[in-house]
Design goal:
The structure holds two protein chains of two kinds. By secondary structure, chain A is mainly alpha-helical. Chain A contains 20 helices and two strands. Chain A has a two-stranded antiparallel ribbon. The radius of gyration of chain B is 21 Å and the shape is globular. In chain B, strands 1-2 form a two-stranded antiparallel sheet. Chain B has one domain. Classes of the chains: A mainly alpha, B mainly alpha.
């Protein structure tokens, strides 16, 4: 593999990043020019802009098979990065739409600008092929997210959330950086695609290399919130403004998985068996812990936080399977999870906006207050639980199939048993929504247009991915194949 | 390209259910009429499929196949054979009568019918699936609406507990089977979920013996096999009438059918190895279920446990692995489905009037609702296996099959006939005859026309199959022969 000379194509490869920075600038400008009453439209501008970027990326930035390493080897323009970029952009678009009516963030230009910058960091994470750029993009993602999590300055919980996220993030990021430096020390090389070869040539002891792998895993584990690096999740999710919670739990997790897959597969092929075994144990622990602790939650954001931990565990099964189909199933799982979780959070925001509560008990009577919103929550939660004909079902079948294919039958059993626990607490929420009565049943819940658009987009995606699964699976298989 | 009968049958309910959501919530009459129209369409189509199934050709008919997820060899592949065609008809009948019985529901009927119809789509789909993945897809679709149907519209006292218990039991069973199915898929190396191809995969004997229990018992949970039957009486009792009918009438068959189709037909060697255990468990079902039914004081619990008892006969029929037993099991699935739907319909009608199901507090209903009493007595006679009714046609071959394989089991199980007769007689005496308690006297009126239509239809089917078994028995025998060829080929 060689690094391509600079060509115009290299610019197209980072087209989404360039456009995102431009859009962030435009939003800051509009924020200055517009009167406060006009600023409510900022969310629409941001969402429309991201949609335009998404379309432009899909048309102009298609990866080409030859010489994918561009820009001095910093970026690898392949189907893996491309697919994750589109997924992250979709999540960013929905996040903008569901931010519009949230007080304290929805009419703030700097909020959207920060959101777009962190999105840019994530898309770079997805295609970074060099340790240096990888680290920079992770930090570009994290730092705006710390600010966004603590964006509601007057809210103690939000401030706590931002600070906690920052402290955990900073710590794990340092450990990860130490891991990177070890890798560089072994190989004298920072490019992921040449690293393994040089590490092999240097005959590094597998024990030391394994230690490096663990250090790197700390950083990635924090990003995707797997056990034992999950402790920040519930508090940060609960305190952060809900659209940011949605964004952290979807796009940030997806970007984290993108680098996790790329780095583990490329940098540590020699000790595959070792890290796969570690990750298999982590996957089982993550699913179990996330699901079991979710059982006792009374706050919907905390419940979704623990459920998102559990879902990271399911997705990890795809990586542990160490096969092309496994990596594809991981991507498919993330696709299903991202669209589903965004829908769930959209409902949470709408409910909190009208009813002023995030307690599950207060969801009583929702099916009478707003039958369509209740139905949207039903679809989202059942998809998370893995019920057909929704996206979550096929996604779960694929990761379990990947596990069985690689002979990890125990992990498949751990997965399906966890799915049962998951079903239990999702049904508990639905029971409150559909069964319990409340005194507020005559108070309808208003659904502003931007939220309706976001919900329709997500629910449609859940159904399409769940029923017409074949093209998406083909796509993820192609993306997984482009990794090597 | 022929008309896709099965697809129309499968998807009519779910499409109708989604359309229902757009009806104004308070227009109950329009909602009911639309639901009835959809159910009638499905009943007519399933009757057509049943009647035009060509027995001289046998095998799978009304086949439709379309590629779905080609990379994994998953296709949309449906068709019916002699075993499944009667079950498709059964589902059509129960769906139609279920809508009729629910005519008076006033709490959110729109949502009720939507969830009920999603359930119906899942059930039709499982009976018609020839693709293993598709079967799971529909199977899970059938599981989750139950939760909402029971917990929202069920009996207030136990609904939350029973709904959750039922859903978790069934889900555990299905995901355990799913792992088994995935293992079968990868072990076969055929890269297909097509069950007809997997039948010829030639799994090793050791493999079949290892995985058969996972697949078979995973599904048999829904068939109510002992000791996993525990969800069923609680679920039946807590469910609203139409859902109890669906549940005991169709869903338990779904479990038994899937256990047959995936467990026995794909892993015949495993079935042979584990058949003695199924025989034992099935006998426990039959005898224990009947005795427990005997001591219940709640009308609905009696019927709930009678289902456990009768489904045991289906399992026994499977476990004989011979022609008589399998034919009987197939007939029993149909006959018990209709009979138990009739029973639960009657329980619902009595409860609506009396507001209690406590047997000592009931009595004299035959005078107030004569047709209901007649229908229940017909169902009762079916339940006892009286000649001239469908129960006899179904149970007699099962006992013959048992006698051929395990005479001792047959002898033990025969006890249940006596016990069944006892508890059915007891109910008929307690509920329909004798004097009506003072507090009910004068408050009990007759049922509405829709209820009567449902009762006449259900009991008519029981009589028809009983006096003229040729309408069903040869077809089921056809299906049983196909299974026997698989079992024979495996030995």
């Amino acid at each position: 593999m060689t690094i391509a000379e600079f060509t115009p194509r290299a610019t197209l490869a980072i087209l989404p990043e360039i456009l995102l920075v431009l859009l962030a600038g435009i939003l800051l400008g509009l924020d200055l020019l517009w009167r406060p009453s006009q600023r409510v439209a900022l969310g629409w501008v941001a969402a429309a802009g991201v949609l335009a970027i998404l379309v432009a990326t899909a048309i102009f930035s298609l990866p080409e098979p030859d010489e994918p390493l561009l820009l001095g080897g910093m970026v690898r323009h392949d189907w893996l990065g491309f697919s994750f970029t589109l997924l992250i952009l979709f999540a960013a678009m929905v996040t903008c739409l569901i931010s519009t009516q949230v007080s304290g963030v929805g009419d703030r230009g700097e909020y959207y600008a920060l959101l777009l910058i962190t999105t840019m960091g994530m898309t770079l994470m997805a295609s970074a092929a060099d340790l240096i750029l990888l680290y920079l993009s992770i930090e570009t993602t994290s730092i705006p997210l710390y600010i966004l999590a603590g964006f509601l300055k007057s809210d103690d919980k939000s401030t706590e959330s931002g600070l906690k996220y920052f402290l955990f993030g900073a710590l794990t990021s340092t450990v990860m950086l130490y891991g990177f430096s070890l890798l560089y020390g072994f190989a004298g090389e920072t490019n992921l695609y040449f690293l393994a070869e040089k590490v092999n040539a240097a005959q590094v002891s597998p024990v030391v290399l394994g230690a490096g792998a663990i250090l790197v895993l700390v950083g990635f584990g924090f990003k995707v919130a797997i056990v034992p690096f999950h402790f920040w999740t519930p508090d940060v999710y609960e305190g952060a403004p809900t659209p940011i919670t949605a964004f952290i739990s979807t796009a940030s997790k997806a970007a984290g998985f993108a680098v996790l897959v790329r780095v583990m597969v490329l940098a540590f092929p020699g000790i595959e068996g070792f890290w796969a075994a570690v990750l298999a144990a982590i996957a089982a622990a993550t699913m179990t812990l996330g699901n079991v602790v979710a059982l006792t939650q009374s706050n919907i954001k905390r419940l979704l936080a623990y459920s998102s931990i559990a879902h990271a565990g399911y997705a990890l099964i795809g990586l542990v399977a160490l096969s092309g189909f496994g990596a594809a199933s991981l991507m498919f799982y993330l696709l299903a999870y991202v669209v589903t979780n965004l829908a769930a959070f959209a409902v949470v925001i709408l409910f909190a906006r009208s009813a002023g509560s995030e307690q599950i008990a207060d969801y009583a009577g929702l099916s009478r207050r707003s039958p369509w919103l209740a139905l949207a929550l039903l679809v989202a939660l059942l998809s998370l639980a893995g019920m057909p004909p929704l996206a979550g079902f096929v996604a779960k079948v694929f990761v379990f199939a990947a596990a069985v294919q690689s002979g990890l039958i125990w992990l498949a059993f751990a997965g399906v048993l966890n799915a049962i626990v998951g079903l239990y607490y999702y049904l508990t929420v639905l029971k409150v929504v559909y069964l319990y009565r409340s005194e507020d049943e005559d108070k309808p819940i208003s659904v502003p247009r931007s939220y309706a658009v976001a919900l329709v987009a997500c629910i449609a995606a859940i159904l399409i991915v769940g029923i017409a699964s074949a093209p998406w699976l083909e796509w993820t298989v192609a993306a997984a194949a482009s990794l090597y | 390209m022929t008309f896709p009968f099965l697809s129309v049958i499968i998807f009519t309910p779910i499409v109708a259910g989604v359309i229902l959501l757009f009806f104004p919530a308070e227009r109950h009459d329009r909602i009911r009429r639309f639901a009835l129209a959809a159910a009638s369409l499905d009943l007519l189509l399933s009757l057509y499929v049943y009647l035009s199934y060509d027995q001289s050709l046998a095998g799978y008919q009304f086949i439709e196949k379309a590629s779905w997820i080609p990379r994994l060899g998953i296709s949309y592949y449906v068709g019916v054979d002699g075993m499944s065609a009667p079950l498709v008809l059964l589902t059509g009948v129960v769906m139609f009568t279920g809508v009729l019985i629910t005519w008076k529901l006033d709490d959110r009927p729109r949502e009720f019918f939507t969830f009920l119809f999603i359930l119906a789509t899942g059930v039709f789909g499982v009976f018609a699936s020839l693709d293993l993945f598709l079967l799971f897809f529909f199977y899970e679709i059938a599981v989750f609406p139950m939760y909402l149907l029971i917990s929202i519209w069920g009996w207030k006292v136990t609904r939350e507990y029973a709904a959750m218990k039922l859903t978790l039991y069934l889900f555990i069973g299905s995901v355990v089977s799913l792992v088994g199915a995935l293992v079968m898929y990868f072990t076969s190396g055929l890269n297909t979920f097509d069950m007809l191809l997997l039948e010829g995969a030639g799994f090793s004997t050791a493999f079949q013996q290892l995985w058969f229990p996972f697949v078979f018992f995973g599904f048999a949970v829904l068939g109510g096999i002992f000791p996993f039957h525990n969800w069923s009486p609680d679920g039946h009792v807590a469910a609203p009438t139409a859902v109890s009918m669906f549940h005991a009438g169709v869903l338990m068959k779904l479990g038994a059918f899937a256990a047959l189709r995936v467990g026995i037909m794909l892993l015949p060697e495993g079935a042979r190895f584990w058949a003695p255990l199924i025989l034992v468990l099935g006998s426990v079902n039959v005898v224990y279920g009947a005795f427990i039914a005997m001591v219940q004081t709640d009308f609905k619990y009696v019927i709930g446990f009678s289902s456990v008892s009768h489904m045991g006969l289906v399992m026994l029929g499977f476990a004989t692995l011979n022609r008589n037993g399998l034919t009987g099991a197939g007939l029993q699935m149909f006959s018990h489905g209709v009979m138990t739907a009739l029973f639960f319909a009657v329980v619902g009608m009595v409860y609506d009037q009396a507001h209690t199901r406590d047997l000592p507090k009931l009595g004299g209903f035959a005078k107030a609702m004569p047709l209901v009493a007649v229908a229940f007595i017909i169902g009762g006679l079916v339940s006892m296996g009286m000649p001239g009714l469908s129960g006899f046609i179904a149970e007699f071959p099962i006992f013959m099959g048992l006698w051929q394989t395990q005479p001792i089991v047959a002898l033990v199980v025969v006890i249940s006939i006596v016990v069944t007769a006892a508890y059915i007689m007891r109910i008929i005496g307690r509920v329909f005859f004798g004097a009506m308690p003072v507090e009910l006297d004068g408050h009990v009126g007759d049922v509405i026309l829709q209820d009567k239509v449902a009762l006449v239809l259900l009991s008519g089917i029981l009589i028809l199959v009983g006096i003229y078994p040729a309408v069903m028995a040869p077809m089921v025998q056809n299906g049983a022969d196909a299974i026997l060829r698989l079992i024979g080929a495996g030995s």
